[in-house]
Amino acid sequence: RSRELTATPILTKLQKDCATPLPLLRHVADAMASDMRAGLSADGGSDLKMILSYVDSLPSGNEKGLFYALDLGGTNFRVLRVQLGGKEERVIATEFEQVSIPQDFMFGTSEKLFDFIASGLAKFAQNEGGKFHLPSGRIREIGFTFSFPVKQTSIDSGILIKWTKGFAVSGTAGRDVVACLNEAMERQGLDMRVSALVNDSVGTLAGARYWDDDVMVAVILGTGTNACYVERLAAIPKLQGQMSSTGETIINTEWGAFSNGLPLTVYDREMDNASINPGEQIFEKTISGMYLGEIVRRVLLKMAEDSDLFGASVPAKLAAPHVLRTPDICAMQQDNSDDLQAVGSILYNVAGVESNLRARSIVVEVCDTIVQRGGRLAGAGIVGILQKMEEDSKGLIFGKRTVVAMDGGLYENYPQYREYLQGAVTDLLGTDISNNVIIEHSKDGSGIGAALLAASNSKYE
Ligand code: ADP
């Protein structure tokens, strides 16, 4: 008996388990909205932390002067300067530089890492010239985008909860990361200070709002995922009376931790069990770039074990976690050729898998199933946020133009994912309302956004 036949039932079962029909998406959107409320009511009240950003004045377009941004969120840090010219001149000039962080700084002491960053910043600041000009008597102000879990304590301070993403730096956890950076800058003799500490989704919202007053939500879909939105202070019970001048603030949802009503498979559960944070970040593990390729790999491995789809034996490379990455499955899905040549070579080069046409087309279907589920669930999450805002103030969102600013490598590079996401939003909202909801890419808005937040929270205003 040929084992080949058994690949098809695995695919059929996968498609069934990953299905995202409208009622399921509705349920996810509703659950997102109610988890948001629970997280706003009390700390620890929900999967969603609903963290206060302390950003309560968004860029207006009137910002003027020279500001810096520093972005630390992975194996690189980026520094940027921008000269702002107010409503008329807007962004007069920007310059940026990217510096990669050598391994030993990721495993060393806090002082070493921050000294390395401060010296990179010092070098960058030295080359300031041309169109960039700091009024005399001022020190340079920085917006600091720090994409690790932080308990924010004010617009310019926050305690590091823990390092993630492969960083194991000693002596920072429990400390104010802004103080760490300010001290390192002092040690370097660098005349700069941090005016705003921001999460990357908050930076994206600020950067997009600078150009468009209708931006209310920002979503990052990259290696991981997160979302933030503009909330009324009156709708945040856990705040208990702290007031901002505008009556509004940005809430960082940390929505990657959402877990309600998701259609999960045995592959998701096994991947979660094998992860460094089992039971955590379930939404992130279903929709973000770090995981989509890995879920596909686990399905293909099962097919290789239970059928002879890829030949008689299981290709050894396919058994290695994370060999198949999201950019690989994306590239396979762009292959429109009759013989799926590109799919074949990616399978062979990346996973050591030999394939015939039938196997290749099954692989593409597996990719599509996982990406469709991811994109549609991300869309349902966005609708959940919009729905929560609309329920609180009728007409605020659905009665006018509303913009959701998107950024991150997954959203930017994966056309099918983007289409599935938009499709779910349209399905859920209906054509009339969804015509008013603009989901748009805001490329690298978060760097400029952080500099803009340094400007709107400047010590000199
Ligand atoms: P990060 O989220 O790490 O700060 P990015 O926003 O640039 O950085 O996202 C990088 C992620 O985007 C990668 O981990 C990968 O999952 C995804 N990605 C990058 N390129 C592609 C691509 N061509 N197709 C699909 N996904 C991609």
From TrEMBL:
Q: Please list the GO terms describing molecular function.
A: ATP binding; D-glucose binding; fructokinase activity; glucokinase activity
* Any one GO cellular component localisation term in the record: cytosol
Give the bilayer topology.
Answer: Single-pass membrane protein
Where is it mostly found? mitochondrion
Mitochondrion in keyword set: yes
The chain positions of domain Hexokinase C-terminal read 217-455
Q: Which CDD domains match?
A: ASKHA_NBD_HK_plant (cd24020)
Keywords of the record, alphabetical order, are: ATP-binding, Glycolysis, Kinase, Membrane, Mitochondrion, Mitochondrion outer membrane, Nucleotide-binding, Transferase
Gene Ontology BP term (one) = glycolytic process
Q: Where in the cell is it found?
A: Mitochondrion outer membrane
Among the Pfam families in the record, one is Hexokinase_1
Name all Hexokinase N-terminal domain ranges: 11-210
Q: Which PROSITE patterns match?
A: HEXOKINASE_1, HEXOKINASE_2
Its EC number is 2.7.1.-
The pathway it acts in is:
Carbohydrate metabolism; hexose metabolism; Carbohydrate degradation; glycolysis; D-glyceraldehyde 3-phosphate and glycerone phosphate from D-glucose: step 1/4
Would you identify the family this protein belongs to, as annotated?
A: Belongs to the hexokinase family.
Can you say what this protein is called? Phosphotransferase
What is the scientific name of the source organism?
Rhamnella rubrinervis
State the organism's lineage: Eukaryota, Viridiplantae, Streptophyta, Embryophyta, Tracheophyta
